[in-house]
Amino acid sequence: MPGLSKLPLEAKVAMATGLVFFSMLVSRSVLSARIPEGTRAKLFRLQFLLFVNSLMLIGSVRIWKRVAVGLCRWRGESCLTHCWKLAVLLFLTSAHSSFLTLLVLVSEEPSWIGLVTYTCLGSYVILLFFLFVFGWLDQARKLLAGSRSAASQAPGAADRHPKRKDVLAIGVTLALTVLGLLNGAQPPAVVRVEIPVHKLPPSFDNAKLVLLSDIHLGPTVGKSRLEMIVSMVNQLQPDMVAIVGDLTDSQVDPLQTVTEPLRHMKSRLGTYFVTGNHEYYTGDVDRWFSHLKTLNVQPLHNGNVRVALPESSEEWFCLAGVDDLEASVLQYPGHGMDLARALSGCSTEKAIILLAHQPHAAKRALQERPDISLVLSGHTHAGQIFPLSIPAYLLNPFFAGLYRVGDSSFVYVTPGTVYYGVPMRIGSRAEITEIILKSPSGPDTSTGARGERAS
């Protein structure tokens, strides 16, 4: 194509990204059922890595032009500028390499390579955002100034510091990276929330449900972090524990010893799990279900259980869970959100608590079944790091915290118990949620707001 060579590099990279995305759609919609499970998992992961890296390449080209070539042109060629270009190249290479660690560096504890590459990925996102924002603000300033400003300045005065905005973007990125790493290294906060649950039996008034989500065991989250979480949960002495997806970023084999602390999690009425989108990215969901059962964690695969107290078996509520929405998108055989199946056998006269990883699934469930009393979700991480909090807020019907829907339904979205990949938190805090269930027949059901927060 003669016109293709004239396109800017960013446009060519965008076209390549589109081709990779198209190949993902074809293989997952047409070839999925025809490929053996092991091969399918490897293919999906390879396609995911290609897509993410080709998408990132668009931003990398922009960063290279602004931060490496642009700043060095301003300072002139020297040994220092060559070293600076090499540093930028290493930074971009590390950011692109982060997702590769999912394939080769998953072990009992995070490796320094995984932590460094994912830190670079977080800094990459922050830097790209501020390069865009400061560049846009600079262009807006120039437009507002117009010809009047140009006429009042001496020749060349406007270009005396043409890259000052890029230096500022680098400075802000470094500061936020340090802040994010310090915040991400903190233990999750324990947040106590009282939630009225419509139709909840009086015997369950003040029952304690501990909510976990988005632990993301993998290259940057290992066994010691999970041991700390289990210890914090056990100190709360919960009646139930719910893990609402994204427990893992890898397959079962490299994480068998990492997940062992889950065996020691104590809950009087059981520990329950539903899939998140990242479980389906591993391509190993059914083996995860089998493995979790050996750890006394019960998967709710579009299913439900009757939760009753040993001393009062006649009073119970329905705890249900649905597969993540991504299962249908990925054409994952035997999986996909099926609310009717998940609630089969749940009486409309009893309280229903639903575990659904994504807030979009919570919204869909309440539209189909407004009699659901409470939906517990995760997925958003409350953005995890700024500026990702902006799209996370705009693209989800529920972002973080407690929401009332209709007259008697609630949705609680946890910001997550750890983090995904990037070991940073900016503008958010990891959380273990201690939910106190309140019965309408209990002595006090007037509260539904966030209560005590403890570090």
Describe this structure in words.
By secondary structure, the chain is an alpha/beta fold. The chain has 2 domains: 9-142 and 163-183, no CATH class; 188-438, Purple Acid Phosphatase, chain A, domain 2, CATH 3.60.21. The chain has 13 helices and 13 strands. The strands form 2 sheets. Strands 5-4-3-2-12-1-13 form a 7-stranded mixed sheet. The chain has a 6-stranded mixed sheet with strand order 6-7-8-9-11-10. Strand 10 and strand 11 (409-413) form a beta hairpin. It is elongated and about 80 Å long. The N and C termini lie far apart (60 Å). The relative contact order is 0.13. Residues 154-160 and 445-455 have low confidence and may be disordered. Pfam families: Metallophos.
**Helix-residue proportion:** 40-55%
Structural class: alpha/beta
Number of domains: 2
Give the beta-strand count: 13
What does this entry show, briefly?
Keywords: Membrane, Transmembrane, Transmembrane helix. Pfam families: Metallophos (PF00149). With 455 residues, this protein is an alpha/beta fold.
Task: Compile the SSE list and pairings.
Layout: H1 9-31, H2 37-75, H3 79-97, H4 101-104, H5 112-152, H6 164-184, E1 189-196, E2 207-212, H7 223-236, E3 240-244, E4 271-274, H8 277-282, H9 285-294, E5 297-299, E6 303-309, E7 312-321, H10 326-329, H11 339-342, E8 352-355, H12 359-368, E9 374-377, H13 389-395, E10 401-405, E11 409-413, E12 431-438, E13 450-454
Parallel strand pairs: 1-12, 2-3, 3-4, 4-5, 7-8, 8-9, 9-11
Antiparallel strand pairs: 1-13, 2-12, 6-7, 10-11
Helix pairs in contact: 1-2, 2-3, 2-5, 3-5, 5-6
